[in-house]
Each structure stands twice: as C-alpha cells, then as structure tokens.
Amino acid sequence: MTRSFLHGRTETCRSVSSDSVAWCTSMDDPSADTGRRIKLLRTALATHSRLTREAVNGHGVDRHLLGLRMLVAPTEPMPAIFTDPAYTYSSHWFVSTSQMSSEHLCSYGWSAVTPRGYGIAYNIRENSLIIHVACVRNEHGLNSDRFAQCLETAAHDIASLIDVKKVSEY
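Request: output the structure for the sequence above.
Response:
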C-alpha cells in the first residue's frame, strides 16, 4: 500500500532484474571472488531500491496494465499485449511476498496466490529476520519446509559475504 495516494494503492515491486540475476549467479559460481560478489550485490541493491521507489511513487507498470486490461469490454477483442506469452508468464506469481517490519509483531502469514507458487511473509527486525513460507503441497512438488531451509542457507551465505570486516576491504 502506498500512502502517497488518497485512498492508498498497491503496486508490485518486482525483485528480479538483470542485476539481481547477475549477483545470484555469482553466489553460485565457485570461481567468483568476494570482491566481485560484493560489487554485484551493491549494484543489485541499488537497482532494487530504484525500482521500489518508482513503484511506490506510482511509476510501476503492473497496476497500470491491470487497469487497462480490466477496461476491455467482454465483447471487445483482447489487445495483443495481454495475450502475449511473455505478459502471461510475467503475470503468474511464483513467489508473492509481503513485509511488515516491527519489533512488536511476532508473526503473520501470507498465502501463495497460485497453486504453483509460494507466499512469503517477512519481518525485518534489528537483530533478526522472521520468515513465514506457505504453499499448497500438490502435484507441482512444492515444499515450504525445503524452501524455508534454502532461504536460511542463503541468509547465512549473505551474512558471511557482508561480514563488516570483508565489506570494508572492498
């Protein structure tokens, strides 16, 4: 919800960018050194921060496109952009997240928005991170326990990468 608008509004903040993919790829590449990984992380964070600011300020595309799609009357042909495979794929939320950060909030849930996806609620605290992972266990092979374990491993990898002593060297 962005409070900049009279009655508030939601907007999608897309976390995947070329920069975040480059950083994630480096984390899985044993030949990538710490300096390169930190540089790629900083670039990915800067891109994510910029995209988040744009979305919060009403410059995201998802709600705009949703509004345009909803304006198409049932008797009108659907414009090509809304039937394009890339648009269809990008409108399928494999991971849907929500954040409410507070030292006073113990936990809350966030549901998956598709049977083939995960819902992740997270609470960033001063000295901890609470994550709630939900999914529907079905024929798609989803497993919230396994996903949560992967998130924990990734968090430890990131903590190791951004150790204050290491970062100050780069």
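The longest helix spans residues 34-56.
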